[in-house]
Write a structure and sequence with these properties.
It is a single chain. The protein is α/β, with parallel strands linked by helices. The chain has a single domain, classed as Alpha-Beta Barrel (TIM Barrel), CATH 3.20.20. It is globular and about 55 Å long.
Amino acid sequence: MQRPMTPSPRVLLSIDYEPWFALFRRYDKLKDPVQRCLLDDKFTLNALDPILEKLGSAKASIYLVGEIADWYPEIPQKIVAAGHELGLHCQNHRSLINIEELAADIQASAGWRKEYHLRGYRAPMVGINESAYALLGDAGFFYSSSIYAPAGTLLNKHNVWELPVSTLRIFGKNEVYAAPRDFTLKLLASGEFPYGSSFSSGLSENIVLKIIEKELKRGVSPVIFLHPYELKRPPKWFSRVWPDVVLNPLLLPFTRNKSNFLAALLRNFPISPLGVYLDEVLADRANRLPAVDNKA
């Protein structure tokens, strides 16, 4: 059910912190952790400080791929020390629609995830099944941000809150937001433009910024995500991406540098992590319950 959220509207900013090669599906079958670490080429280690510097005093939700925490334990430490919300993106980045694979991936992250008391989850490629929410709840997650839906949507699935990545409803009507709701032609054909995806800001930063401004004026808080390789160029970026982009031009918007887009978000709008905002929304609802009961 879609409701306007009563705490002050702001941009709910997130970064899906993943290796540069997570963008390309041909690496999904690479299982050896040593080879994957070598392929990362210390990008995720070297990109963090410049990205934290770009964020400045603003706080975001940073959903970390767990293998990065294994390679470089200082990365989750730095994220938390800087005051950002740390969440789980996955342990190894690939599609986790299959429930058995998801269960194994969640279990693989258990050690470092419990160390940092993670509450939030963002599925790889914003792709999840309805049956996954029971798994997330059993693993101790408080919320997920793993489907696309209009800004202002807040759902409860198996006692796990779902705060979706934002879309703009252009036409049509849909009050049922069952997973999966990923970035597909079906979603577009239903009348929703997923402006919260970094694909959309890669197409036109100005259009996305104008949408965000209008959404905030109507009192809802857009959920936006970016990736580290969109804010800090990996080594040998062009030579690494061009073979995949030639075969799949739809990858091109993800390869654009979005530092100016991030700067515009920080300059023009209030920013918050998803978890902080969700706590405010739920506290506001709880505070209003007695007044509602007294009128009944």
